Every structure is written in C-alpha cells, then in structure tokens.
Amino acid sequence: MLLYFQQLQQEAPPTEHILVAIDHTAWGKPDAKTLQDRTHEYHKGVIRGQGYSTIAWIPEAEGSWALPLLHERISSWSSPREKAASQLKLVCQQSINPV
C-alpha cells in the first residue's frame, strides 16, 4: 500500500503538510471461542473480538475521500495507541515529504 502512496504523492500537487487520519475499529466476535488472540474491545460496551487500526491519507482539504495506507489487526500484546504510532512512523519513513 505504501508504494501507491509514494506514486500518488508524486502525482499530487505539492503541499506543505501531509494529512493522515487514524481509526481504531472493534470487530466483535463474542461467540468465536476458537478465534485466537481475542481481546476486550470497546464498542457500545465491552465485547470480545479483535481491534483493527487503519491509517489513511487525506489528500485534499476539500472533498470526502481518503486513501487507506495501512489496515492492521491490533494484537493482544499491543494497544491501539501503540499500533497507531507504529503505523504513523512507517508512513513518515516512507513519505517523500516526511512530516
């Protein structure tokens, strides 16, 4: 995914800053007793399931689209903040214009 980010950055008009959005989504799997690495997720209360972190590039100040760059599961030995920080670090390293 990050390869496409670099290609699109080259085609996009130059900007001073790169704007990204990060989201943590809980996917409830309360009845999946054999699903490995289920965690306690917060979604309208506490549920058993898995969390996912998505980081997306917001290329335009106006408009309503975003380009997802990374979408990864948050393991039980990590936290949403730690996953978001590692994703942001990777995007910054791969960026043509690091933040």
Q: Explain this structure to me?
A:
The protein is of the alpha+beta class and 99 residues long. The chain has two helices and four strands; from the N terminus they run αββββα. The model has no long low-confidence stretch (mean pLDDT 81). The two termini are 18 Å apart. A hairpin with a 3-residue loop joins strand 2 and strand 3. Helix content is 25%, strand content 35%. The chain has one domain (2-13, 36-94).
| Tertiary shape | elongated
SSE order, one letter for each helix or strand: HEEEEH
CA gyration radius, whole angstroms:
16 Å
**Overall number of domains:** 1
Q: How much strand?
A: 35-45%
Helix coverage percent: 25-40%
Instruction: Quote the average pLDDT.
Output: 81
Poorly predicted runs: none
Pick out its properties.
about 100 residues, alpha+beta, four-stranded antiparallel sheet, about 35% strand
Quick recap of the structure?
This protein is α+β, with helices and mostly antiparallel strands and 99 residues long. The chain is built from two helices and four strands.
Note the topology.
Elements: H1 2-11, E1 19-28, E2 39-42, E3 46-58, E4 67-74, H2 80-94
Antiparallel strand pairs: 1-3, 2-3, 3-4
